[in-house]
Fold this sequence. Notes:
With about 80 residues, the chain is mainly alpha-helical. It contains one helix and no strands. The mean pLDDT is about 85.
Amino acid sequence: xxxxxxxxxxxxxxxxxxxxxxxxxxxxxxxxxxxxxxxxxxxxxxxxxxxxxxxxxxxxxxxxxxxxxxxxxxxxxxxxxxxxx
Length: 85
């Protein structure tokens, strides 16, 4: 039982197509795995937040910097009011 050339070509073509499909499946599987890991981390975070003994961490804020000359922060008014005499 011998294979003829057309059958051999068909087998090689199917093997190449299967390699492409396997590559695409691996890529999709990596994306799904990353999404599952992210979801698991989010569930763990929510579980910790909803625990009875949860205490939120106070956010550390930077001190305000003092500008030379005591300039005020923010935008200057469009029509400055003249000083009352």
